[in-house]
Amino acid sequence: MTEDIITPALEVHDLTVAFDRKPVLWNIDLKLPEGKLVGIIGPNGAGKSTLIKAVMGLLPLSSGYVKLFDQPIDDVRKRISYVPQRESVDWDFPASVLDVVLMGRYGKLGLFRRPRKADYDVALDCLKKVGMEGYINRQISQLSGGQQQRTFLARALAQQADIYFMDEPFAGVDAATEKAIISLLRTMTEAKKTVIVVHHDLQSVTQYFDWVLMLNTRLIACGPTATTFTQQNLQETYGGKLTLLSDVGDLIRREHFPNREGVIKQPKTI
Amino acid sequence: MNSLLDFFSFADPNIRFVVIGSVLLTASSAIVGTFTFLHKKSLVGDAIAHAVLPGICLGFILSGTKNPAYLIAGAFVTGWISLIGVEYITRHTRIKEDTAIGLVLSVFFGIGILMLTVIQKSGNASQSGLDHFLFGKAAALVGQDLLVFGTVAVLLLLAVFLLFKEFSLLAFDKDYAKAIGLPVRGIELTLTSLIVLAVVIGIQAVGVVLMAAILITPAAAARFWTNKINIMILLASVFGAFSGLSGAYISYIAPAMPTGPWIVIVISTIAFISFFFAPKRGVVNRLLRQRNIRRTINDENVLKTLYQLSEESRNFFIQRSAEEIIRRRRFSLETLTKVLNRLKRQGYLEQTGKHWSLTEEGKNRGQRVVRIHRLWELYLTTHLNIAPDHVHDDADTIEHLLTPELEAELEKLLNYPKVDPHKSEIPYA
Question: A5, A227, B127, B213 - which has most CB atoms within 10 Å?
Answer without folding.
Answer: B213
